[in-house]
């Protein structure tokens, strides 16, 4: 949303005002003009928005006339363009123009057309024409606001972990892009984070904004955050200039000494199960759930809390993880994206697969009794540690055959994570392995 203060020189009665300092992607129906001086607001009789003049518009304006082309030829524009019909092929939705050259007709342009320059230079730019009625004469300052396309922002977070330990520094940037067709000098910028509904061309679109955090510890943060309506707003403390076509990064935040936890998770079950598949297919298919994979996931867990040195609403964005090597250089070790994360939530991000940890999952027994509507299934899961130190691993198991289940035997304690998921936490010795077995009884 663009807001601009403009000065109007009005006379008593009807005034025709042209304002050219607007974006090329302005939504005309979103324009709001209001008086900022406290005086009576002039009445808007009419408002017209004009896009920058285009080749198609100029072709239509000079239809029936002879124009020059860049290659030095001349031609008469017989027809500028027409809408496609069901029997006409044209990729851009319009028929090709029809040009008369030396008494013959040609479809399509000879070369780029040359048109006389417009008498009013404002035609080359987007502009608004107002017809305003004022009951007095004089200058007044008004606020013009409107919604525009062509501008975006996103977050990028960098998490730097030292050579030893798990505490990290969380650094990032707000990346702003301006492709609106207008430059902004010393603008006050506010960034809205959240899922804001935007209706366009009969489609409901969600504009998810993200934000970053900035390097460098300063006395006052370069961005102020506050809750606003159902979202969070981030206000840049210092004015910034945005040229058209420019990408700019602005410092946001630097938090040091944040505690993090590295998790290793082995989820051997790899079949992608949708809720509707928990039916006769999952209940009675003997091969269901027997495919497996050997990779052990590496997860990073960070509590977004004041006690952990963070405790701020984190907008959606990509998080890159780096670890400092013994020589002092930082090396990239993985990345993932976070959604909008309120204060008090915990981030758990997958960053890659462990090189020296492997897993194996196999079914050892299966019994199905369709008459009495139950099945029993047994598994053995083995995780191997090829490192020189012990490793804690979470063995994650999904119980997807039925919503009604019971673990009838197990070799290790487990935690029920949700209605279809259990976790076995195990510690694997250096160069060793850990085997977990269990039997589940399904009924329906």
Q: Tally of extended strands? A: 31
Main structural class: mainly beta
CATH class of the largest domain: Mainly Beta
CATH architecture of the largest domain: Sandwich
Largest sheet: 9 strands, mixed
What coarse outline follows from CA principal-axis ratios?
A: elongated
The radius of gyration computed from the alpha-carbon positions, rounded to a whole number of angstroms, is: 32 Å
Name the beta content range: over 45%
- Helix amount, in percent? under 10%
Keywords:
9-stranded mixed beta sheet; 444 residues; single chain; mainly beta; 5-stranded antiparallel beta sheet; 2 helices
Tell me what the structure shows.
The chain is mostly beta strands and 444 residues long. It folds into four domains: 2-52 and 120-146, no CATH class; 55-114, no CATH class; 151-258, no CATH class; 261-302 and 347-443, Immunoglobulin-like. It contains two helices and 31 strands. The strands form seven sheets. Strands 28-31-26-25-22-21-27-30-29 form a nine-stranded mixed β-sheet, with no helix packed on it. The protein has a five-stranded antiparallel β-sheet with strand order 8-7-6-5-9. A hairpin with a 6-residue loop joins strand 12 (151-161) and strand 13. The longest helix is centred in the first third of the chain and has 7 residues, at 55-61. The chain is elongated and about 90 Å long. It starts with a strand and ends with a strand. The model is unreliable at 83-91 and 201-221 (pLDDT under 50).
